[in-house]
Amino acid sequence: MNTQGERKVVLVTRRTRLEELVARYHTLAQARFYIEHLDADFSDYVRENAAYAHSLQVAVEVLQAWGRYQVVDRSYLPNFMFAADDIVVALGQDGLVANTMKYLDGQPLIGVNPEPSRWDGVLLPFEAKDLQGVLDDVARDRRPTKAVTMAQARLSDGQTLRAVNDLFIGPRTHTSALYDITLGEQRESQSSSGVIVSTGLGSTAWIKSVVTGSLGIAQALRPGRPMEYQAEPWDTDRLTFAVREPFPTKTSKAELVFGTVTHKQELRIRSRMPDHGVIFSDGMEADYLRFTAGIEAIITLAPVSGRLAV
Length: 310
What we know:
Layout: E1 9-13, H1 17-25, H2 28-37, H3 42-66, E2 69-73, E3 87-91, H4 94-101, E4 108-112, H5 131-139, E5 145-148, E6 151-155, E7 160-163, E8 166-171, E9 177-183, E10 186-192, E11 195-198, H6 206-221, E12 239-243, E13 258-261, E14 267-271, E15 277-281, E16 288-290, E17 296-301, E18 306-309
Parallel strand pairs: 1-2, 1-3, 3-4, 4-18
Antiparallel strand pairs: 5-18, 6-7, 6-17, 8-11, 8-15, 9-10, 9-14, 11-12, 12-13, 14-17, 15-16
């Protein structure tokens, strides 16, 4: 049985909006001038920063009493090596939990809400004051965890990228994505603004807006037919993909625009974009894979699931 301090805790943090502004404009005074020049409430930035700093202080005090711990800013996650028995804590918004989970290989993840009055926190069931008890439970395998299915893109050059919410496959800028798409026996060349591949957790996010818009258009064209979008459970055993704004031409089709990926059926996409194709996940555009002409992406369910403490 694991006891307190035997397992290292990795605390993942993020910059607040105020810290981002100070990093950009170099001083607090310059940051204030920029925000107030836009007639925005600078005091809200200050309150958010103070609340986060307080929660961070409480969390660190818990970890100091715990024993082995390490604090990591989320910008270092793509190159950070987690140990197999680490316990991971994400202090931030839901997006930080998702951005952290995709770099884990089954380690338990604890989402901590730094300011419950500000953030709803679907993935943040705990506050900093709860951390001691939750860590004790996780270390002794007494805390239940919720499985979260992840997606994975594997490129023909060996690179891989996971997603907790969704993968975006398409152009880096507002241009057309050119590619060949294959699902089972179906294959066609397409031109679109990109492909979204969603997990169950992400089924209430980006892909919901894509599908809802499509259903609204279809209903306007064919009124009287009730249409409804249903989200998937977090641990669903399939992914859902949708092609954004497919554009049929003499050389491109628009029939294979929606479907599912399962353990038995992968999705393959081969780029025909000379230099502007990318794949990124969970809205993190800075952490992307280059997806240029000739490279094939194989989209599957990830071999491991996320473990979110609840």
